[in-house]
Amino acid sequence: MKSTLSGPDGGDCLYAAKLNGDRYAIRDSEQPDVPPMVLRGGVFRAFVGGAKLGEFDF
Prior knowledge:
The chain has one helix spanning 41-52; strands at residues 14-19, 23-28, 37-40. It is α+β, with helices and mostly antiparallel strands. It has one domain. Strand 1 and strand 2 form a beta hairpin. It is globular and about 30 Å long. The protein starts with 13 loop residues before the first strand and ends in a 6-residue tail after the last helix. This is DUF397 domain-containing protein. Residues 2-52 form the DUF397 domain. InterPro entries: DUF397.
């Protein structure tokens, strides 16, 4: 999935993909050669919930 807020060039994005076994892979669009980080579903959902609440805004 890709954020609808990302620009047309795809920069500054965090890509996420659901894997089997309640796992998610995430990667930074600015570092395509770095392997994705794989998270347990609970960790990924906590991250998304925190982002929605603005916990990572500065």
